[in-house]
Amino acid sequence: VHLNSGTTLKYPVKFIAGENRQVFLEGEAFFDVAKDKKHPFIVNADKLNVRVLGTHFNVSSYPEDDLTDVVLVEGSVGMYATNEEFNADKNTILKPGYKGSFNKINTHINTKEVNTNMYTSWMNGGLMFRDMSFINICKKLERRYDVTIVIKNNKLAKEKSNASFENKPIEKVLTYFND
What we know:
By secondary structure, this protein is α+β, with helices and mostly antiparallel strands. About 15% of the residues lie in helices and about 45% in strands. Strands 1, 2, 3, 4, 5, 6, 7, 8, 9, 10 and 11 form an eleven-stranded mixed β-sheet that branches. A two-stranded antiparallel ribbon has the order 12-13.
């Protein structure tokens, strides 16, 4: 597991034989799960469970975000609300190269094909923003650089941007948004 800034992962000291391998995530993490059909791996991300038998995937579930995003790089994962039992015929099953977005308010899941690098570049120090409001970009910058950003311009806060950065200091990143 690779944990992003501001992330907490809770897991047992030892998984119990014959039981699911369950962990609890608050924040963002990339998982590389060993296959074990007898012991499914389940990531509990607030109101969403992500069930896996063995795969590579990213889960982003920060408390302040309205959506929990699951991006599948390899294998397959099932997505379902924590108050449901897993059912492969009824639950959302992602294919590699797809993102599932779980709405924390109405528990609806939308899926779409994505460039997985955009969602996993953080593991190598990258930051990628696509059609993202400046206020949400600032949330990600605050977590990454452990700073507080105050936006005094409401119009700017709602403005959407696209940007990519590789291991840049925050001063360089903010200069990009200066125009």
